[in-house]
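To whoever is on call:

I kicked off a structure prediction for a single chain this morning and the downstream step that reads the tokens threw a length-mismatch warning. I double-checked the sequence; it's 107 residues and nothing unusual in it as far as I can see. Pasting both halves so you can look.
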Amino acid sequence: MEDKNFLKEIFNENEQKCTDLFGTEIWYGKLQDGSRNKMRVYVDYIKFVQEVLKLYKADVADFRGERYITPCAPSQLSQEEQQDVKEMIEAIIDTIHYAKYKRSKKS
């Protein structure tokens, strides 16, 4: 499965939660609702996914003589590993989303 399709599929299945979590931006020193800019939300989601992939299965890249830890590309993962990553990303999103709105449900 292509990387973009794999990551986009997870995003689409969890779009409302991703919008809630990644749809905030800083504008002139204040938090603003940025959810209307779907591309910005998706970019922030991709940054989040890259960090998760780095923790799941890191790669090492050389750039101008320096070595860097980079996320493993989803296309380099087996089907089982892709399913594990998908479940992990969804579990993290669900957990953060639940924690964010837990207080408002108690009121």
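Update from on-call: the warning came from a stale cache, not from the record. Cleared it. Sanity check on the structure: Helices lie at 3-13, 15-22, 38-56, 79-106.
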